[in-house]
Amino acid sequence: MIIKRLTVIGVGLIGGSFALALRRAGIVGHITGVDTDTDNIARAHSLGIIDEIAADAASGVSGADVVFISVPVCAIAAIVRDISPALPVGCIVTDGGSVKAAIVSECDTLMPSGCRFVGGHPIAGTEHSGAAAAFPELFTGKRCVLTPGLTSDPVAIETVSRLWTAAGADVCSMEAGHHDRIFAEISHLPHAIAYTLVRAVGTADVEGENVLSYTAGGFRDFTRIASSDPVMWRDIALMNREALLASVDGFSASLAELRRMIDNSDQAGLTEFFTTAKKFRDGIV
Ligand code: NAP
């Protein structure tokens, strides 16, 4: 066993799956859950994801060796502010938020003496939310990026790393701002585009037809992630503002280039454009 007591704040897809994976690995003793959604936390308890429901975050961290926070990113630092006075000495606080620089710098300053914060982001998920969507294999073979900050000492980093490894993830580490720029391109931009595409097509007017009634495999594959939780993606867009704006600008320039080539009936240009994209895509699957 690596830790005796874990507290999970936000027992949804990520928090619930983390708890289930650690339980299955047999490396955690007791798991306390905290969640503002009373139906969700009751479900997490009845499904055996957590052993105990705490009334609020501050009482929930009593006696915890590790606290894992997995709520929408704009709520993470406020939770750390609430629990900070109640954290036991030696406690390690970590999170699963999809944006890191702002969270790590704020949470570092909120750590009381003797406690450590280690930022984390599992690169795994689905378009579903809540404890009922959690499953222990979610992180198997997936990356988990740790973004250590000023209070992350080697022991805390090693403990969080061992937890994610036990959950099945391949752990790597990088600077938080670097993480945010990479994931703006590879995750936040694709989600923004998927939502934009569905919204644009859903409101398109083609001689009064409901265009969405004609969707088939391609549209559904491409837009699966637009069924993700809107609050989660609102928060990610707000918190990774600068990096996401740069990604959106880069994408808009590419789309404008494509538009120009279509407008000019540029056969060679279009062939090169699609061929380059296909090569990148074929290289990742
Ligand atoms: P989720 O399934 O919606 O679970 C989050 C839970 O936290 C919900 O039950 C929510 O309740 C609760 N909650 C919200 N604010 C809270 C607060 N202040 N105190 C206590 N509980 C609170 O979300 P998720 O998909 O697990 O995402 C959690 C985090 O993981 C996010 O930071 C996200 O960026 C990150 N992440 C998600 C994915 C993914 O694919 N889903 C992948 C990697 C990382 P309400 O519904 O009532 O708000």
Question: Describe it for me?
Answer:
With 285 residues, the chain is of the alpha/beta class. It folds into two domains: 3-174, Rossmann fold; 178-282, Orthogonal Bundle (6-phosphogluconate dehydrogenase C-terminal fold). The protein is built from eleven helices and eight strands. It has helices at 13-25, 38-46, 57-60, 76-83, 101-110, 154-166, 176-202, 217-223, 230-239, 241-263, 267-284, and strands at residues 3-9, 28-34, 52-53, 66-69, 92-95, 116-122, 143-148, 170-173. α4 (76-83) packs parallel to α5 (101-110) and α7 packs across α10 (241-263). It is elongated. The two termini are 37 Å apart. The mean pLDDT is 97. Bound molecules: NADP nicotinamide-adenine-dinucleotide phosphate. The site of NADP nicotinamide-adenine-dinucleotide phosphate has 28 residues, from α1, β6 and α9.
